[in-house]
Amino acid sequence: MVQSTVAVQEKSGVMNIPSWWNCPEGFEELQKLAHLLGEKELLQRSISSDLEGRFPRESLKEIANAGYGAVTIPVEAGGLEQGFTAFSVLAESFSQYCPSSAMCWVMHTTTVHTLYDAGTEEQRKKYIPGVLKGDIAALAFSEPATGGHFWNVVSEAPRNANGYLLNADKSFVTSGGEADFYIVATSFPDSDDKDNLMYLLVEKDQEGIESSSFSAMGLRGNASGPMKFKNVQVPFENRIGGEGGAGYYNDNTVDPLFLLGSAACWVGIAQGALNAAIYSAKKKVHADTGSSVAGYQVIRHELAKSQILIDSARSMLYRTAKALDGCQEKGLELSECLYPLWQLKTHAADMVITVTNAALQVSGGRGYLTGQVEKFLRDGRAGALMGPTNEVLREWIGRTLIDVPWMDEV
Ligand SMILES: Cc1cc2nc3c(=O)[nH]c(=O)nc-3n(C[C@H](O)[C@H](O)[C@H](O)COP(=O)(O)OP(=O)(O)OC[C@H]3O[C@@H](n4cnc5c(N)ncnc54)[C@H](O)[C@@H]3O)c2cc1C
């Protein structure tokens, strides 16, 4: 069994790692509950979900049953109102057991928060009770035509007598074909707003929806395949926000939650891989030298370097989550934290590649065999590719550093 980050060894002479280093203060109980859920419910289905490319529906249902169907939205709207630190603690913990479940849940939570922020009272009342019982929500933003520039879409949904006629090709949709509803980013051609981005809520059974299977290197349970929306008639009451102007919610809701939640997943995946490598390095003993793998100094240095890298990203994660919580409390825009979020996501997604690779090396040929360590490496590799990709984010960070507008000409 993989060692958990919450368990701190208490052997005499062994340095105790302070609990605040692994978990923001005040969230210890939540972290403990999330690890229990991970051990009991998520871990058991994680390997088969990966091998069979099966959507982790039962695991997501258990997450909802535990009360985490709408963690970030206010209590009066049916949410837990636990804030962004709690969201990060849960995502980091879940991903140590089943990264696919954790990422589907992050996308779900981001969608639910978008519905809350941009939606009307009626829309909240209609859809939030369902997500508390296990309905799954998803974001259909990226299009093949514009790749990772998901804020620029070529699809359109012109108005007709009954609402909007949506025609959109989407390249990757996590929980695609499995979700109960989607927030689809498209454009409204006749918008009065300079930003003609528009969100439409599409329910799973509407006519004209096609989803394709997802065959990928990692996160294989995610059902992140392409979707097509062909002449889907969306009623007026399912427009989330205005006819245009949704770029505001991209910057203030979708990006902050996605960048934070996904970074938490990369931290959790890295920690899960390192825990598995530590376990294996302690267990494997060479008969000729009499030493365990962990007995070699070079191996211990690899473990130390990896843990330091994980904690550098974890520190950024919880510092940024706290800042977002602060913005929310003070009624400030979450976009105030975009710059730290870009750095956080870039670092966490780079870090997980380095750490999972080191974990595999420490685990030897056994780590290369089908199993937990190689799976963490494959799952974590998605981070740098998910939009905004690390190349795009480094460009925005670099432009900011030299006082050049970040969005021009991208
Ligand atoms: C597992 C997974 C799940 C996903 N889930 C969702 C989802 O739920 N919803 C959703 O909407 N999308 C989702 N995506 C899509 C994701 O957010 C990106 O849009 C997608 O990964 C980009 O891939 P692409 O092949 O279109 O890349 P491209 O954009 O074609 O990029 C190819 C390469 O060019 C680089 N590049 C692109 N633009 C620039 C630039 N301006 N400057 C410098 N370099 C650049 C990229 O970094 C990359 O290295 C998911 C993707 C993955 C892998």
UniProtKB/TrEMBL annotation:
<protein>
    <submittedName>
        <fullName>Acyl-CoA dehydrogenase family protein</fullName>
        <ecNumber>1.-.-.-</ecNumber>
    </submittedName>
</protein>
<keyword id="KW-0274">FAD</keyword>
<keyword id="KW-0560">Oxidoreductase</keyword>
<feature type="domain" description="Acyl-CoA dehydrogenase/oxidase N-terminal">
    <location>
        <begin position="28"/>
        <end position="135"/>
    </location>
</feature>
<dbReference type="Pfam" id="PF02771">
    <property type="entry name" value="Acyl-CoA_dh_N"/>
</dbReference>
<feature type="domain" description="Acyl-CoA oxidase/dehydrogenase middle">
    <location>
        <begin position="138"/>
        <end position="232"/>
    </location>
</feature>
<comment type="similarity">
    <text>Belongs to the acyl-CoA dehydrogenase family.</text>
</comment>
<dbReference type="InterPro" id="IPR009075">
    <property type="entry name" value="AcylCo_DH/oxidase_C"/>
</dbReference>
<dbReference type="InterPro" id="IPR037069">
    <property type="entry name" value="AcylCoA_DH/ox_N_sf"/>
</dbReference>
<feature type="domain" description="Acyl-CoA dehydrogenase/oxidase C-terminal">
    <location>
        <begin position="262"/>
        <end position="401"/>
    </location>
</feature>
<dbReference type="Pfam" id="PF02770">
    <property type="entry name" value="Acyl-CoA_dh_M"/>
</dbReference>
<dbReference type="Pfam" id="PF00441">
    <property type="entry name" value="Acyl-CoA_dh_1"/>
</dbReference>
<dbReference type="InterPro" id="IPR036250">
    <property type="entry name" value="AcylCo_DH-like_C"/>
</dbReference>
<keyword id="KW-0285">Flavoprotein</keyword>
<dbReference type="InterPro" id="IPR013786">
    <property type="entry name" value="AcylCoA_DH/ox_N"/>
</dbReference>
<dbReference type="GO" id="GO:0016491">
    <property type="term" value="F:oxidoreductase activity"/>
</dbReference>
<dbReference type="InterPro" id="IPR006091">
    <property type="entry name" value="Acyl-CoA_Oxase/DH_mid-dom"/>
</dbReference>
<dbReference type="InterPro" id="IPR046373">
    <property type="entry name" value="Acyl-CoA_Oxase/DH_mid-dom_sf"/>
</dbReference>
<dbReference type="InterPro" id="IPR009100">
    <property type="entry name" value="AcylCoA_DH/oxidase_NM_dom_sf"/>
</dbReference>
